[in-house]
């Protein structure tokens, strides 16, 4: 196996620094790289999401230690937004633009250096058999390990996503505002791209990272990029959202949200999800009940809420249609 | 003039979030003017505040049966903490339209605004683009198939930018206003977090001109430009070849010739000239970068 660190994007910053986006390539040796099957893991698009950093680190070390034979190419991109990761900023400094809303954007629409960044990333990933795009929600919400799939791509992506060892596949309606994401752009180029959301912003959840590394390995094995996993793990079958209903629970009032259920718990209709308290008076401003027998797959992590803040997303297995 | 509380939201620790509207005249909802959906749009808020004062002085000249609404600051929370986007979660109110009354906070704000604004025949949004530089004052319309270009000429700006909306902009007020049958115009100009009083005055004069020409304001009219309509493809973006210290050498509105030098980039550490930026075509300066530090591949000028 050959290992190399390669530069994908290299732009000059104003003062004695370059903006460099790098990938680590693990490839079979010897071989013509052009003809080898390839998968890629990308993360660090939002600078306040670090769960993917551990996935990259553990995947790289597992490859180095020979957990799988490498028959093709595995590319690892730990930091698509290195300036954001350094500044704990979700958006890309200094323009304060969400990198994951600027792929394939008309260049007349923005004037920063983002176009060469996004073009460089897209060009380097196009043609992979699969790309796993790892996100960690944000600082407000904790997410079950899940793959999010637009209905338009469900047929192509669901068979791949089932290998990733996640707990949930959320098949959602296509949204116009998501058409400038990395995943949309790559899927439009017939490069299957799976968006993983797991954990919470600015923190690590090691067990989730471990499971996803196993899943990425299983996907690589399925696609002929990797040999069999020498640790022989079981791959879990995820719950698939199109077999039930999604409920969004938003805060009815402002205050301090204190949960009374755990993340990833199954709860009953009418069960109290949590309370909103006034720190000023101690008064309980609201008690929030579950609208259904359901699984808590998203739970508010950051306690300060305003009216409308998302408290939870629930999956109700028995219902048929998705509810907004 | 009547001041209305259009929306109110409690905060856990701050004062309530309140959107105030100023109504002039009475009768059919004729023109709504909104500014300050982002905390960086201080120039836009200042222009709207100036307009409130002007309309207060002219209220007796508003045509019978017509009402004008002005919302100078649709997002006071972001202004008061010096942030462009929503104070708690950094979401952009102007990408949340048409809004959702049972959704997240900024979706609820957008929905509340939409409920107020869609009844008006004309909608004017004083807004900005997320660029660090300066724009000339102009009117911008999203090309949706519902756009009304003819009435946009009544502002008398030098330029009307007919813009193809990108997917993100389908969540903007301008786009959704049009879909809900309001003739919608965005007025842009100036620089984020900065007030240029000459540009503010020009914006107020343009809105008053528009109100006269649409017969909402019964006053004699004059002035303004013969507006030139430009599309995205008629804008010439001038990119920097190097990163470093930036010095723009031409001003907004200047006429420049093809090949003319527009600015210079010098090495941030040793002061050596790295490159000059030259005009790729003849035209007028529509936008210029004003930040002293630029990255390689920054748009330094836009000419049209």
CATH fourth-tier homologous superfamily of the largest domain in chain A: Zn peptidases
Unreliable segments of 5+ consecutive residues of chain B: none
Helix content of chain B: 10-25%
CATH class category label of the largest domain in chain B: Alpha Beta
If helices are DSSP runs of H or I spanning 4 or more residues, what is the number of helices of chain B?
6
Class by SSE composition of chain A: alpha/beta
Q: How many domain modules of chain B? A: 2
Shape summary of chain A: globular
Distance, first to last CA of chain A: 48 Å
Helices and strands of chain A, in N-to-C order?
EEEHEHHEEHEHEHEEEEEEEEE
Name the beta content range of chain A. 25-35%
Low-confidence runs of at least 5 consecutive residues of chain A = none
Q: Give the chain pair forming the largest contact, with residue counts.
A: A-B, 47 and 47 residues
Topology:
The complex is a heterodimer of chains A (324) and B (304).
Chain A: E1 2-13, E2 17-27, E3 38-43, H1 51-64, E4 73-77, H2 82-87, H3 114-125, E5 130-135, E6 141-150, H4 154-161, E7 168-172, H5 182-188, E8 193-199, H6 206-222, E9 239-240, E10 245-250, E11 255-259, E12 266-267, E13 272-277, E14 284-289, E15 294-300, E16 304-305, E17 310-316
Parallel strand pairs in A: 3-4, 3-5, 5-8, 6-7, 7-9
Antiparallel strand pairs in A: 1-2, 2-4, 6-8, 6-15, 10-17, 11-13, 11-16, 12-15, 13-14, 15-17
Helix pairs in contact in A: 1-6
Chain B: E1 2-9, E2 17-25, E3 28-35, H1 42-57, E4 66-71, H2 76-80, H3 105-117, E5 122-126, E6 134-142, H4 149-152, E7 159-163, H5 173-179, E8 183-190, H6 197-213, E9 228-231, E10 236-239, E11 244-248, E12 255-256, E13 261-266, E14 273-278, E15 283-288, E16 293-294, E17 299-303
Parallel strand pairs in B: 3-4, 3-5, 5-8, 6-7, 7-9
Antiparallel strand pairs in B: 1-2, 2-4, 6-8, 6-15, 10-17, 11-13, 11-16, 12-15, 13-14, 15-17
Helix pairs in contact in B: 1-6
């Amino acid at each position: 196996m050959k290992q190399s660190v390669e530069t994908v994007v290299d732009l000059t910053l104003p003062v004695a620094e370059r903006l460099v986006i790098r990938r680590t390539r693990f490839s079979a040796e010897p071989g013509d790289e052009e003809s080898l099957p390839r998968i890629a893991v990308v993360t660090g698009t939002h600078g306040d999401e670090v769960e993917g950093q551990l996935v990259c680190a553990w995947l790289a070390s597992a490859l180095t230690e020979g957990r799988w034979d490498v028959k093709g190419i595995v590319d690892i991109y730990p930091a698509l937004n290195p300036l954001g990761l350094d500044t704990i900023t979700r958006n890309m400094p200094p323009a304060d633009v969400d990198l994951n809303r600027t792929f394939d954007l008309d260049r007349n629409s923005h004037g920063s250096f983002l176009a060469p960044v996004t073009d460089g990333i897209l060009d380097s990933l196009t043609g992979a058999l699969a790309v796993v795009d790892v996100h960690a929600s944000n600082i407000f919400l904790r997410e079950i390990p899940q793959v999010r799939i637009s209905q338009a791509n469900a047929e192509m992506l669901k068979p791949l996503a089932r290998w990733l060892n996640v707990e949930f596949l959320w098949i959602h309606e296509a949204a116009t505002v998501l058409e400038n994401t990395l995943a949309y752009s790559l899927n439009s180029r017939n490069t299957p791209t799976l968006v993983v959301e797991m954990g919470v912003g600015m923190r690590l959840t090691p067990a989730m990272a471990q499971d996803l590394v196993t899943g990425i390995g299983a996907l690589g094995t399925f696609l002929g990029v990797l040999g069999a996993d020498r640790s022989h793990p079981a791959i879990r079958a995820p719950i698939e959202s199109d077999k039930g209903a999604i409920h969004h629970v938003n805060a009815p009032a402002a205050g301090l949200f204190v949960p009374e259920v755990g993340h990833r718990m199954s709860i009953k209709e009418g069960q109290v999800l949590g309370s909103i308290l006034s720190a000023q008076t101690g008064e309980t401003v609201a008690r929030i009940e579950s609208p259904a027998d359901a699984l808590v797959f998203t739970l508010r992590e950051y306690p300060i809420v305003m009216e409308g803040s998302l408290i939870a997303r629930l999956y109700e297995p028995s219902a048929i249609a998705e509810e907004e | 003039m009547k001041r209305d509380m259009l929306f109110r939201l409690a905060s856990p620790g701050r004062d309530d979030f309140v959107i105030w509207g100023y109504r002039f005249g009475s009768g059919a909802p004729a023109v709504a003017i909104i500014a300050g959906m982002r905390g960086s749009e201080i120039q836009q808020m200042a222009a709207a505040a100036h307009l409130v004062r002007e309309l207060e002085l002219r209220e007796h000249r508003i045509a019978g049966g017509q009402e004008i609404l002005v919302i100078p600051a649709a997002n006071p929370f972001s202004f008061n903490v010096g942030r462009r986007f929503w104070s708690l979660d950094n979401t952009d109110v102007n990408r949340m339209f048409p809004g959702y009354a049972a959704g997240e906070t900024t979706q609820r704000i957008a929905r509340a605004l939409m409920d107020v604004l869609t009844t008006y025949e004309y909608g004017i949004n004083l807004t900005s683009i997320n660029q660090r530089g300066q724009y000339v004052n102009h009117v911008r319309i999203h090309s949706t198939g519902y756009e009304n270009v003819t009435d946009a000429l009544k502002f008398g700006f030098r330029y009307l930018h007919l813009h193809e909306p990108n997917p993100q902009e389908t969540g903007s007020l301008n786009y959704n206003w049009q879909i809900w049958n309001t003739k919608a115009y965005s007025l842009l100009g100036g620089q984020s977090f900065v007030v240029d009083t000459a540009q503010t005055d020009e914006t107020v004069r343009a809105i008053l001109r528009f109100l006269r020409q649409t017969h909402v304001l019964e006053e004699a009219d004059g002035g303004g430009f013969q507006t030139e309509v430009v599309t995205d493809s008629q804008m010439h973006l001038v990119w920097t070849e190097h990163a470093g210290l930036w010095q723009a050498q031409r001003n907004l509105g200047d006429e420049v010739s093809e090949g003319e030098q527009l600015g210079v980039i010098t090495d941030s550490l040793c002061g050596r000239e790295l490159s000059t930026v030259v005009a790729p075509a003849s035209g007028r300066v529509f936008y210029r970068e004003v930040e002293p530090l630029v990255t390689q591949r920054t748009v330094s000028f836009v000419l049209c």
